From TrEMBL, chains A, B:
Residues 1-26 have a biased composition (Low complexity). It comes from Chelonia mydas (Green sea-turtle). PANTHER family: PROTEIN PHOSPHATASE 1M, PROTEIN PHOSPHATASE 2C. SUPFAM superfamilies: PP2C-like (SSF81606). This is Protein phosphatase 1M. Residues 91-446 form the PPM-type phosphatase domain.
Length: 453, 453
């Protein structure tokens, strides 16, 4: 396959306090991907956690990702993957072992894949996800390949038509190729979550991670997000958000409704209601501001003793926690996670379901300077979309001839959010404190993307 | 209070086939609203169902609504209400019976209210809702009046400050006056739904209705919607949608997830999965297109015998039904509704929760020709937002001096969607069939709205 016109670039920084004693040795290497499917032969495509401190390299699909380690901790809970995904069309009746014999180029659909995983409770789940998710996506796409190569997905994957009106039913539901890709991404997240659960149980590991995955396939960019990472498309005149964040704050009503439907999940230890602050004895009998699952607005309720329990969702902004434990409401892993000193499971309130947004290149005139930025919350806590866009535009403008401008730009964004060391603190230019979270950034040029496939 | 500068206008048409044998006599008159709260003394503020055929009047708050009956049926399942809502500030310790003594004007907050209710299974629920919802809203607003008259809602309704940082907690959560109004509207819908349930049980009535309510209060327009009616703001250069529709199609994932969490609700009679068409024996063993609650996209699943059950959500477009029964997924009433010939209740899948959208007049320069259009699905099935907007603009432009132009415009919109009688059929100008649903339209001029309060 042709080399990439412009290599995407990844930079990452890890922060003290987020490190873990986990090491690569604790991770069971996944089965190698079968022949021909991947550029490069490393079982781990990328993986940003254990690169040497201070290194940063431009990336090509299949090459290990480059990493900036901020030298604040030995390990980084953020992980990254970048690779090309080739989707095979299986011939009916052909055995699995014979797959390598399919060599004809037009039997392949090639896509690009970039993903970021922000681990919590250690990097283990993020490491597994960074090794498995693209494998799950590849598998799920291959399972439905007839649905994404036909102009209209057939009602029956086999192509047979049991009811003569089947094509009409599919058309009436407005089911398109891209819906089948979205479905495959959704199912791949579910499968990856299950694999992480099995893997973690078998190896007695724990923890979870967010997942943000971008897939370029057939002229469209699919961005699947479960967690609080973010993807934006920076263009000359505009910034296009390509993901939404899923946190206990943004998903309050879903989480409260689950507690309403299944109150046993709170084991009488938590209250479902949200209040502006934790209530105390003096509040009993008073009418205070509250929200329940059915409310986008706020009401007043008379405080009862039961309202003094710890709230299911508590805190504000970045400090908001689910069951006093997690800062995200979607992601992979956390199968064994319990609220400290209780038997209350956090997993039922978490969702592995990604939200998938689609950006169709056919209806947008992508220019040379248009780039996709994927980053973990460590960047977005410090820089707004508009600030990132301004940095991107001015950096590209000043470094137009530098072949490594995109990786340098990723490094620049990470360095900006990381700040500078001032004694034992890290501060930003205006002396405000920098983020103490891990920071990972992908900068991906989108121009002439099809020429690479 | 000053008379309205421009009277809002309502027009409605009822269609054959949707009528019911219910009559006004079956409806228990609600307790009269207490003194001073309303302009006009009729216990039913508006109520579009039983006006004489062919009549159409301009409306002022408190006057009975005008109605066009399309002469296709005796009764109209659509109902309408239009009135002014005055919110009293209760003095602490003052008994309810002494409320009428509060006469000082600045102790009132005045708002305007317009609402449409589209009944199903008879007009009974719509009639009760059209009589009660504004009463519930008034009551809920009065309960939290200190939260909507202060610059910032206090943590404690009493205004006392138990924790010195309480104002800061409220500020951190970014709780504003309008959030308390939204909460009051949400709670009012809930209370109205409960009242309908009690009323219907006591009088052995049945049925439900959608509810679309617009409230103008303190310089903001609040549009609360539960069902498939729609509100748009027509401006010179733009159309601003002020509501979203809630149908089994738009709420598929919420409804499927409930069935996943509480499978007993389907009593083994329905399948949770959505397919492009009802499956049959020949499909078993095949891989067919499907969607589950976790999917916005489509996947392929191998059909099992259990998948041949009737789908929880089935059909497409306007024909989509919940449990084979209802075409809407939010609304009031339907407490006794069961799937025909079974004990399966529909109510658990319905939601009384409205979505509330806020339009702040302070940040938009409202012009003389800007109007709010509220209409039931009978209009929107035939005319798009843009078609309605074009009719509105050209009608107002041609009838600038007519003091009844807004009611004439409402009548014009209803007549356009109703079509013309051609033998036993009703057809549109292009000979395509007209809607056979009830059609109700409010046209509400928004300019100088504050001068009326």
């Amino acid at each position: 396959m042709a080399p990439l016109a412009s290599a995407p670039a990844l930079a990452a920084a890890s922060r003290a306090g987020n490190g873990s004693s986990s090491s690569a040795a604790r991770f069971r290497v996944p089965p190698p991907l079968r022949g021909g499917a991947w550029l490069g032969s490393a079982p781990r495509q990328g993986g940003g956690a254990r690169g040497g401190p201070g290194t940063c390299t431009a990336q090509r699909p299949g090459e290990p990702s480059g990493v900036i380690n901020a030298e604040k901790s030995e390990f980084n809970e953020d992980q990254a993957t970048c690779c090309q995904i080739s989707i095979r069309r299986r011939e009916i009746g052909m055995k699995e072992e014979q797959d390598w014999m399919i060599l004809c180029a037009n039997q392949y659909l090639a896509g690009y894949y970039w993903a970021l995983f922000d681990g919590h409770g250690g990097p283990d789940a993020a490491i597994i996800a960074s090794n498995y998710l693209h494998y799950c996506i590849k598998q799920k796409l291959e399972e439905v390949v007839e649905g994404i190569t036909e102009a209209q997905p057939p009602m029956h994957l086999s192509g047979c038509c049991i009811c003569p009106s089947d094509p009409q039913f599919v058309e009436e539901k407005q089911i398109q190729q891209e819906d089948v890709v979205i479905g495959a991404l959704e199912n791949a997240f579910q499968e990856c979550d299950e694999m992480i659960g099995q893997e973690m149980e078998a190896t007695n590991q724990s923890g979870g991670c967010t997942a943000l995955a971008a897939l370029y396939l057939q002229g469209k960019l699919y961005v699947a997000n479960a967690g609080d990472s973010r993807a934006i498309l920076v263009r000359k005149q505009s910034v296009v958000p390509l993901s939404s964040e899923f946190t206990p704050e943004t998903e309050r009503q879903r989480i409260q409704q689950l507690a309403f439907l299944c109150p046993k999940l709170l084991a009488d230890e938590f209250t479902r209601f949200e209040f502006p602050r934790r209530l105390k004895g003096d509040d009993v009998g008073q009418k205070v501001l509250y929200r329940d699952y059915s409310m986008a607005g706020w009401g007043y309720k008379t405080v009862e003793k039961a309202d003094l329990k710890y709230p299911l969702i508590h805190g504000h902004g970045k400090q908001t926690r689910l069951l006093g434990t997690l800062a995200v409401s979607r992601g992979l892993g956390d199968h064994q996670l319990k609220v400290i000193d209780t038997d209350i499971e956090v997993k039922p309130f978490l969702s592995y379901i990604p939200q998938v947004k689609v950006f169709d290149f056919a209806s947008h005139n992508i220019k040379e300077d248009d780039v996709l930025v994927l980053a973990t919350d460590g960047l977005w806590d410090i820089l707004s979309n508009e600030e990132v866009a301004q940095t991107v535009r001015s950096f590209i403008d000043k470094n137009r001839t530098d072949p490594y401008r995109f990786s340098e730009l990723a490094r620049c964004l990470v360095h900006t959010a990381r700040g500078k060391k001032n004694g034992h603190q890290w501060i930003l230019d205006g002396n405000s404190p920098a983020s103490y979270d891990d920071i990972s950034v992908f900068v991906i040029p989108l121009y002439n993307r099809d020429e690479d496939c």
